[in-house]
Design a protein that fits this description.
This protein is mostly helical and about 230 residues long. It is about 80% helix and about 0% strand.
């Protein structure tokens, strides 16, 4: 939902900030690493019951994640390597944060409650996989009720009002599962419409005769070497 409605506006808004940070000598990789380390600190704080501190650290971890793309564009270094690093960092950040929530709930609510954040994490990993696999096949799989930005916002709400944390996680789980179904249906319809795969994904089958000829050529070259 965030990707489709507000991402472009926010990217335009943070573009001057990215230019300023680039002028200070910061790179997109620096910001991604800072966000990852801050998320680790937030996970430790949450796991030890310091939910307000965890709330502040989650927000601080989200700021570099918001700005690293703007810095990369300002530096002219936006590309596959940075996108890969950022995507992996996002998955690790999610694991850290929900792991911290599970740690906290295991000590305060019991083992059964601790499974709730891990269920959210499992469902969110399906969302990420659906998009990655769909795009590799030439389909479009963005959108949904509960993308990563919405999960972070709801998590912050639950940390701020800790008496509602379990209820917030249940809402997050339901909406996350609904998003997996939304994306699956979206890609399924595109596939049924007969949208072709990109060229680099299409494999040409060789006829048996061509395979035999080429196999014979390889055997002949091997004998000549001997």
């Amino acid at each position: 939902m965030f990707d489709g409605r507000w991402r472009s506006q926010i990217e335009r808004g943070v573009k001057p900030v990215g230019t300023t940070l680039r002028g200070w000598g910061l790179s997109a990789d620096h910001l991604t690493a800072v966000g990852l380390l801050t998320a680790a600190a937030a996970a430790v704080a949450i796991g030890n019951g310091a939910l307000r501190a965890g709330f502040l650290l989650v927000i601080l971890a989200a700021v570099p994640d918001l700005l690293d793309g703007a810095v990369a564009k300002a530096a002219g270094t936006a590309g596959p390597r940075g996108a890969f690093f950022d995507s992996v960092a996002d998955r690790v950040t999610d694991a850290l944060l929900f792991g911290g929530v599970g740690w906290y709930l295991a000590s305060s609510e019991g083992a059964h409650a601790a499974m709730l954040p891990f269920a959210v994490l499992a469902a969110s990993s399906v969302i990420s996989y659906e998009r990655a696999k769909a795009e590799s096949l030439g389909f479009e799989a963005r959108g949904g009720l509960m993308e990563r930005a919405e999960r972070v916002v709801l998590l912050c709400f639950g940390l701020l009002f800790d008496s509602l944390l379990v209820a917030v996680l249940w809402v997050m789980l339901v909406l996350t599962v609904a998003t997996t179904l939304q994306r699956f249906t979206k890609v399924w319809r595109q596939a049924n419409a007969g949208r072709p795969l990109p060229r680099h994904r299409v494999r040409r089958r060789r006829s048996p005769r061509v395979r035999k000829v080429r196999t014979g050529e390889r055997m002949l070259r091997s004998r000549r070497r001997l």
